[in-house]
Amino acid sequence: METGRTMARPKKTDAPDLGEAQDLTAGLIERLTCTAGKLQTFMRDTKAPGLRVRATPASAKNPQGVKAFVFEAKLNRQTIRRTIGDVRAWSIEDARTEARALAKTVKSDKQDPRELERQQDAAKAADIAAATARAVTVGDVWPRYLTEGKPKRKPSFKPRYRADLEAMAAPGGEKKKRGQGNTRPGPLYPLLALPLAGVDEDSLKSWYDREAKSGEHQAARALMMFRGFLRWCAGRPEYRALIDRDAGKAAAIVEGLPSNTRRTDALEAAQVPGWWTGVEQLSNRTASVYLRALLLTGARREEMAALKWADVDFQWRKLTIADKVEATRVIPLTGYLSQQLASLPRINEFVFASTGKAGRIADTRASHAKALQSAGIDGLTIHGLRRSFSLLGEAAGAPAGAIAQVMGHKPSATAEGYRPRSVDALRPYLAQIEAHILEQAGVTFDAKAAPGALRVVQAA
């Protein structure tokens, strides 16, 4: 009679039987190796269906191979796997708990845990990105606006406007160029600390009310500039969702703005002699000639201040002016103005030179104020000289189109069927205007006289 044979119990040093599910233990996991010639080998668990231990081949980086707990299941007739974690970081019981939770997701909820994880990761990334975006301040974006911003239908900001933007947002604290003490922060500076997402009607109203106490017109101009910044941000996908483009147009703010009445200040004919004498007697000759040049050409103050010697053609009697509307405009150089410019010292490239940082005349309001005081004239701005040229030009009998062209106004088809004139065609009209202004000022001009050989004739 044959005696029954009993199967030998596997030794603790034997490799696990991968054909059967195993009651996972640390020893079994330690003895698990990747089958030769395969990229990965799996050992199943008996207590948590779906739980596997995966082993990969040994490599130079991992001489023992890599072992990890893995969940495996069937979903929509497809095998799905999700890595739970390294066997050195997860205990067997924790891996079983995680595998059972994943099994519930697959069987009860009919969802792929890998897709759920991707969705969760995407949601976290979106939350982080949103939080990062909300932390972006006006000050973070402002330098980019200065570099990339531009007005409508223009390639870039004009240098003067760019300088104004910088001054409006300057932190202050620098020594004043004139007077004692340090400069104050610009009106826009407090806004730089605000998050873009925090710029709304309430924050702008609070800011404007504070700034208006120091100067409502300056605060209103700063607000207009900041509206331009908001419009620029609205045109950028990365900032569009963060800003309220119309925050600066809220009724609560607009109702408090100062009235935008158009200035109409200009010299009356009877005021011309007094103004001329006051300007002519200024101790600063450069400022004196500059102010008279504004009246005689109707040029904008920055256009004339930026005039260079290379722009003055004494031979063919022409001035090339950096125009606000077009790139440049060329106007005739009249006799009296030519003599005045020729009498100025050539310190640098600028006609109206200065020893200041810019190298040219920058602000003549103080000089103009002295001339106005001596003439007893109130309320005439430097820009008012431009209006004065237009009115005196009309009084001299010059055509409206010629006056507009000299001043650099946009062409108007409503006046005399507008068509641009050549420089030579403009010359007699500008000479006519200059003669009329000199007559009003009581100045007799001798075109053949040397510079400075001009005399004032007192009115009878």
Task: Give an overview of the whole structure.
The protein is 42% helix and 9% strand. The chain is of the alpha+beta class. It has three domains: 26-131, Double Stranded RNA Binding Domain, CATH 3.30.160.390; 138-254; 269-456, hpI Integrase, Chain A (Orthogonal Bundle), CATH 1.10.443.10. A hairpin with a 4-residue loop joins strand 5 (312-313) and strand 6 (318-322). The radius of gyration is 41 Å and the shape is rod-shaped. The protein starts with 25 loop residues before the first helix and ends with a strand. The model is unreliable at 452-460 (pLDDT under 50).
In short:
The protein has helices at 26-31, 92-107, 113-134, 138-148, 159-168, 201-212, 216-234, 237-240, 251-254, 272-280, 285-297, 301-305, 335-342, 365-375, 382-395, 400-407, 423-441, and strands spanning 41-44, 51-55, 67-75, 78-86, 312-313, 318-322, 328-332, 443-444, 455-456. The chain is an alpha+beta fold and 460 residues long.
CATH topology (fold) name of the largest domain: hpI Integrase, Chain A
CA radius of gyration: 41 Å
The structural domain count equals: 3
CATH class of the largest domain: Mainly Alpha
Q: Roughly what percent helix?
A: 40-55%
Give the strand order, joined by hyphens, for the main sheet.
Answer: 1-2-3-4
CATH homologous superfamily placement of the largest domain: Intergrase catalytic core
What CATH architecture label of the largest domain applies?
Orthogonal Bundle
N- and C-termini, Cα separation = 160 Å
- What average pLDDT do the residues reach? 85
Instruction: Give the tally of β-strands.
Output: 9
**Please, what is the oligomeric state?**
single chain
What are the secondary-structure elements, in order, as H or E? HEEEEHHHHHHHHHHHEEEHHHHHEE
Q: Kindly name the structural category.
A: alpha+beta
Point out poorly predicted stretches: 452-460
